[in-house]
């Protein structure tokens, strides 16, 4: 349980803290990403405006050239026009060259073109400018002079007379110089490229770290471009976004298309910048988690100690009671659930001790009664054995008498002595029979006492069973109390859940209440676990009480009932023996009377010899019958003795069972 409590406490602490740190980290990263990417569209817009200022303003000079070219009839001899374009070139240092050509192949240019066979009609700027007869500007691809390595663009426009085309060769170095100071943020980069993916200007990490090509060169693959869909050069810059996920870190690619030139202004922002900016929050969250775990470890130690100390006492007391020490007491003075449980345990042990004490007394009384029954049975067995021996002697004497009666006819002189012997034997038999009758009567009384004692033992067993049933009812009551504790735990868990819901609704103000709700939920779970373990212990006690009740109801009660049955059978057998003995006494008295008559009138011996022979035979038969009855009585007494021994063994087993307990 301690391991579960530690895991539960750490889970309650670490999981919410980790989740808070996790979501705080990602929320902070999202906030940082939002803050860092918010200015990107503004940067792209300002870059587009800067392109319009540097390039668009120079493109407007073509309109000025259109005005001054109208006064010249031909380009070949127009000195005024040459002067004007020279002045423009001198005024704007970033203008590398100005050329005006017509359909006849004539041209004027500054600086002068040294190529003698130069024909402006074969140039790209003339061809595209001538085709744009609607007066729109043509911007060539960004090019790099192989000699001077200047990066430039040619801007051309058909003049209003429809016969001439003017061109300005514009150096893009000032644009690249000014844009190189633009800071996108972090490791972000800014790139200006034309539709042919040629780089006109750039800034940021792509310049410092390399890997992006060079000015005037081609842009690396993997960065998409957007076409110029603007219907007018004055339209605002158009934005789009693309996320590249095939690199080590994701990269956000923002595109803006300048409507005037059709160039793409590209801003690159790597997600590693967002992660690096949010990393301090992650470190702080981990630090808070570690400190919280350390503080929680101290709190868990004291909480577990408050749980485990009374739990250890309860376990020790339960183990001692299981081993038979019913004098064990917990004596826990706490006022919490453990204190109530310990008090109930002490009360249960007291009740169980009183039951076992009474059971011990009952078993002692049962053992004493069984020993008395055994002693009485042994005495009765000896008496019956003596009766049987006497009956055997009587049977033998009767047989001898029958033989002597048959010889009486031949020996009259010996008849008197035989009659005297018969008389004496009859007198002895009468005395023995009377003694047997008295012994049998005493045996019947003893057996009746055994039966009554068995009835008392049965009553004691039923009282013991009733006490154990009451103990079972008390245990059931304790089980119901445990179920009440479990109900309270479930209600507490429900209240904790409601409190957590309300705390989550309260937002930041409910965080403290959420922690309290979590602790209440933890306490309810611990109460439920304790209630479940108490219920399991009570179930084991109920099983033990049920087994004790079954033992008392089945084995002891059956054994006592069997003893009562055997006692009743023995009583019936002794009653039969008593009847047979009474009958024998009557017959022997008849024999004595006949013997006295034979002694008084020996003259009638001859006449009554035959009758005497018959009587002797009857006496022998009766003696044998009496001997058989005595044997049956002995067998019955042996059964009673065996039953009393079994009853004694049962009482001894009960005492041994009770001796396991220390009262």
Q: How would you explain this protein's 3D organization?
A:
The chain has 663 residues and is an alpha+beta fold. The chain has helices at 2-59, 61-69, 79-91, 124-131, 173-179, 205-208, 271-322, 337-407, 413-506, 511-600, 605-659; strands at 95-102, 107-110, 138-139, 143-144, 151-158, 164-171, 189-193, 199-204, 238-244, 251-257, 264-270. Among the domains are: 52-170, Beta-Lactamase, CATH 3.30.450.20; 337-479 and 558-659. 70% of the residues lie in helices and 10% in strands. Strands 1, 2, 3, 4, 5 and 6 form a 6-stranded antiparallel β-sheet that branches. Strand 7 and strand 8 form a beta hairpin. Helix 7 runs parallel beside helix 8 (337-407), helix 8 runs antiparallel to helix 11 and helix 9 (413-506) packs antiparallel against helix 10.
**Which residues sit in consecutive blocks of at least 5 with pLDDT less than 50?**
none
N→C terminal distance? 32 Å
Strand content: 5-15%
Number of helices: 11
Based on CA inertia axes, which overall geometry fits? rod-shaped
Structural category is alpha+beta
Write the layout of secondary structure elements.
Blueprint: H1 2-59, H2 61-69, H3 79-91, E1 95-102, E2 107-110, H4 124-131, E3 138-139, E4 143-144, E5 151-158, E6 164-171, H5 173-179, E7 189-193, E8 199-204, H6 205-208, E9 238-244, E10 251-257, E11 264-270, H7 271-322, H8 337-407, H9 413-506, H10 511-600, H11 605-659
Antiparallel strand pairs: 1-2, 1-6, 3-5, 4-5, 5-6, 7-8, 7-11, 9-10, 10-11
């Amino acid at each position: 349980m301690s391991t579960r409590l530690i895991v539960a406490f750490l889970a309650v602490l670490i999981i919410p803290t980790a989740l808070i740190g996790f979501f705080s980290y990602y929320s902070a990263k999202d906030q940082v990403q939002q803050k860092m990417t918010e200015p990107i569209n503004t940067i792209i817009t300002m870059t587009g405006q800067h392109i319009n200022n540097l390039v668009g303003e120079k493109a407007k000079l073509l309109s000025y050239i259109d005005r001054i070219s109208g006064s010249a009839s031909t380009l070949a001899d127009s000195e005024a026009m040459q002067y004007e374009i020279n002045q423009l070139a001198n005024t704007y240092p970033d203008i590398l060259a100005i050329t005006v050509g017509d359909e006849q192949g004539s041209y004027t240019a500054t600086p002068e073109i040294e190529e003698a066979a130069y024909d402006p009609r074969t140039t790209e700027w003339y061809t595209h400018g001538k085709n744009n007869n609607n007066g729109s500007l043509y911007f060539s691809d960004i090019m790099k002079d192989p000699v001077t390595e200047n990066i430039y663009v040619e801007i051309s426009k058909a003049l209003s007379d429809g016969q001439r085309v003017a061109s300005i060769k514009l150096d893009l170095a000032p644009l690249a110089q000014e844009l190189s100071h633009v800071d996108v943020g972090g490791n972000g980069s800014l790139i200006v490229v034309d539709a042919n993916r040629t780089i006109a200007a750039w800034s940021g990490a792509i310049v410092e770290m390399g890997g992006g090509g060079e000015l005037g060169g081609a842009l690396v693959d993997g960065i998409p471009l957007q076409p110029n869909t603007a219907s007018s050069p004055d339209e605002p810059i158009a934005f789009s976004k693309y996320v590249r996920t095939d690199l080590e870190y994701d990269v956000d690619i923002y595109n803006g298309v300048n409507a005037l030139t059709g160039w793409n202004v590209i801003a690159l922002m790597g997600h590693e910048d967002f992660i690096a900016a949010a990393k301090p929050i992650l470190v702080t969250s981990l630090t808070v988690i570690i400190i919280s775990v350390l503080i929680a470890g101290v709190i868990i130690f004291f909480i577990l100690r408050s749980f485990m100390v009374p739990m250890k006492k309860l376990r020790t007391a339960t183990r001692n009671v299981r081993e038979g020490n019913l004098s064990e007491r917990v004596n826990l003075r706490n006022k919490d659930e453990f204190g109530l449980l310990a008090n109930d345990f002490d009360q249960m042990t007291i009740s169980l001790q009183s039951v076992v004490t009474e059971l011990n007394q009952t078993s002692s009384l049962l053992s004493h009664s069984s020993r008395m029954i055994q002693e009485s049975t042994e005495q009765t067995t000896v008496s019956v054995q003596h009766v049987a021996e006497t009956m055997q002697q009587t049977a033998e004497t009767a047989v001898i008498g029958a033989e002597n009666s048959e010889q009486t006819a031949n020996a009259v002189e010996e008849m008197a002595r035989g009659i005297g012997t018969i008389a004496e034997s009859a007198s002895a038999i009468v005395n023995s029979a009377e003694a047997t009758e008295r012994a049998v009567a005493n045996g019947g009384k003893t057996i009746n006492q055994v039966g009554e004692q068995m009835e008392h033992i049965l009553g004691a067993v039923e009282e013991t069973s009733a006490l154990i049933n009451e103990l079972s009812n008390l245990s059931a009551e304790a089980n119901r109390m445990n179920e009440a504790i479990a109900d309270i735990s479930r209600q507490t868990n429900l209240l904790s859940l409601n409190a957590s819901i309300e705390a989550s609704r309260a937002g930041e103000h409910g965080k403290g209440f959420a922690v309290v709700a979590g602790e209440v939920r933890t306490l309810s779970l611990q109460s439920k676990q304790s209630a479940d373990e108490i219920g399991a212990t009570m179930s084991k006690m109920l099983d033990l009480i049920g087994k004790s009740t079954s033992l008392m109801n089945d084995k002891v009660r059956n054994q006592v009932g069997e003893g009562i049955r055997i006692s009743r059978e023995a009583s019936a057998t002794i009653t039969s023996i008593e009847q047979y003995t009474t009958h024998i006494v009557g017959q022997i008295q008849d024999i004595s009377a006949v013997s006295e008559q034979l002694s008084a009138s020996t003259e009638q011996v001859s006449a009554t010899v035959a009758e005497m022979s018959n009587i002797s035979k009857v006496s022998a038969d009766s003696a044998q019958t009496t001997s058989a009855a005595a044997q049956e009585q002995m067998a019955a007494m042996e059964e009673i003795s065996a039953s009393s021994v079994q009853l004694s063994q049962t009482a001894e087993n009960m005492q041994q069972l009770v001796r396991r307990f220390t009262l």
